[in-house]
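Intended use. Records like the one below are meant for learning the mapping from a protein sequence to its folded structure. Do not use them to infer anything beyond what is encoded.
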Amino acid sequence: MPKGILYVESQPNSPEEAEAFHTWYEGTHLKEVTAIEGVVSARRFAVLGDDGPFIAIYELDADDLAAVQARISGAFKDGRISPQVGVRTDPPPRVMFCRETAVYVP
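Structure written out for the chain above:
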């Protein structure tokens, strides 16, 4: 099966909204996205030194990665994924769907 990731960089809108941002992301958003067929896991990362965006990586496993992308987009549109809470929109989150091109295990 083809594999890929959904890579997302985002930040809280303000220091005052940071707690709501993290609570929504980790308590609601990750669960909603991983409920979509083809999304098999999710992880979040913080840049060392806390100077940068937070990164979410969703692992995708499906025969048709474009179909997973369409399902995620549809879930945002039809409300299965809740509205963002405390997310900076200027600049907007950086979102990239990527397909796996190689695997190396030493």
